[in-house]
Amino acid sequence: MQLHSQVNRIALVFLFCLGLTINSNAQTVKIIRVNTDNTLAKVQPNMWGVFFEDINFGADGGIYAELIKNRSFEFTKPLMGWTIQRKKANEGELLVVNRKDENTANPRYLQVNTENGNFGLTNEGFKGIGVKKGLRYDFSVMYRQQNPGVKLRLQLISADQKVIGEGFLSPEQTGNEWKKQSVSFAATETDAKAKFNIIFEGKGKLDLDMISLFPGDTWKNRPQGLRADMVKLLADIKPGFIRFPGGCIVEGIDLANRYQWKKTIGPIEDRQLIMNRWNVEFANKPAPDYFQSFGLGFFEYFQLAEDIGSDALPILNCGMACQYNTAEVASLDELDPYVQDALDLIEFANGDTNTKWGKKRADLGHPKPFNLKMMGIGNENWGPQYLERLAIFTKAIKAKYPDFKLINSSGTAPDGDRFDLLNTSLRNTKADFIDEHYYRPADWFLKNAGRYDNYPRDGSKVFVGEYAVHADKTFTGSNMNNWQSALASASLMTGLERNADVVQMASYAPLFAHIDAWQWAPDMIWVDNLNSYGTPDYYVQKLFSTNKGTDVVPIKLDGKNIIGQDGLYASAVTDKKTNELIIKISNTTDKLQEINFNLDGKRNFQQKGYADELANSNLSQINSFKNPDAVSPKTTSISIKNKKLNMALKPYSFNVIRIPFSK
Ligand code: AHR
What we know:
The protein has 663 residues and is of the alpha/beta class. The chain has three domains: 121 residues, Immunoglobulin-like (Sandwich), CATH 2.60.40; 347 residues, Glycosidases (TIM Barrel, Alpha-Beta Barrel), CATH 3.20.20.80; 136 residues, Galactose-binding domain-like (Jelly Rolls, Sandwich). 19% of the residues lie in helices and 30% in strands. It is built from eleven helices and 36 strands. The strands form seven sheets. The protein has an eight-stranded parallel barrel with strand order 3-15-18-19-20-21-22-23, surrounded by five helices. A hairpin with a 2-residue loop joins strand 28 and strand 29. Helix 5 packs across helix 6, helix 5 crosses helix 7 and helix 10 packs parallel to helix 11. The protein is globular, with a radius of gyration of 28 Å. The N terminus is likely disordered. Bound molecules: alpha-L-arabinofuranose.
């Protein structure tokens, strides 16, 4: 008692020095003990990753920086996104020609005939075109022309109809051969909702396809590459892995609509466009202009993972379409092509350059292997039909690549009959990883912070492949991704970290959403045509990933794991590379909580450390384009004396405390 009041007094002085006032409801000082001598588990270097799916215009219209919508006229409505500008219509001036026998992947092109008068085309972009003053824009087109005659005037048009960038192109005479020509020009204004004009001048006939416009500031300045601001937000998390390409788009509405990686590599004009299944998924969020061009294809995914130092984690279709849609399955005796796709993907990623698929990788400019270590078989598939198909995949893959790790689905939810069947069966078959998904309310996250404390320690490992706090079923966009959801995620994540021997990988989902084009919320990062920002959840993910440490050590309150006593949730790791103790602790109450951290064990701690604090007194606080840092980490220095650290945890706060120690 006496000790408590003395510590209380010290803490009061400490708080006073920090200029903080104590809430009249403040509780007595709690003693939390951390012992850095005991390693409970090793943290995998790739523990905290990201989940990427082309949902919410995350790829086309998002990170894939193409600005022209429907560039190859392959949308169901071939001129969707385009409008014709003319004084008077002339018969046959514009034809959508289909040459499906000659070109199955990209059958349609446009034939423009200006013999009887000039006209133009306008592309609306993906919810407008984001244009930046002074930036270079790279236009390219595939064309053929029997007789020279038609020239192209290219214009960026602002929302208020001004020309804010202009280029010209004079296509040559090519006969029957398709050629590609490019021109670049600079924008004179910034506009988030610009459009793009192609005005045909002169007389003649011209065939056009793959009409493309990219900003000059793509990630690593790669031609026809990715949006740099979005990649940078990702890279800043330092994700351990990237799970791609989804999500439900892996499964497809039916098998024909599934994701097929082989159709996503090589020249972009040969990548066969398909409808994005999120186009029609939600009646209240129709997205009739949502298609997958696969400009961001599997080679680019591997390259992105390599760029930002993440492991690639592809998820492949297992011969089953989405069970919420058609539930179509490939018959077992016709599963071979699906299994072959998986085997060939491993060869594509890792194979020697004299193998068929290794050579394809080298021909695409990457002779070095990508060092692929794992893949998922199926996304959210379930039932005996999944187990049957999975067994066939597993046998074939393990026969050829015994050390290659496979991720298996446990369905769509972390409990219930479907989960129980899969979890039991997969553990019996010694699955490498079981993929658990949870989209649940905040209180579920808090209640489940101890979920893995009693999981079996040997056998199958857990991959929490998709999770996010969903307040309720009414999606209200970025509003839902508030501080309350992030704080609950952080609290649960302390439970994942504490059990890093069982839960070896985790990824929040989904990653990106376009503010004018989303179908699913919440999401980690929001973008418009020019800007992007991280939600409070983004900062939680970043804090975990950039402070992952190497060894889990015990952190206890009254001898017990900290899983909600007085609204506190905590985990601790040491980092053998940086020689630090890293404590993660959330205070989910509306009260300031005074903590005395006792640093037990043999180590000598330095007197100065750092604390990153994410806090907000308003649980509904969100970040936004106007206020992107409303909830973002603030770093302060902290003092350690006689192996003790006194800290006052703000109400509704998540804190990452780093204390250096000598070797
Ligand atoms: O993350 C959004 C969706 O949620 C994924 O596509 C799917 O796997 C899950 O149902």
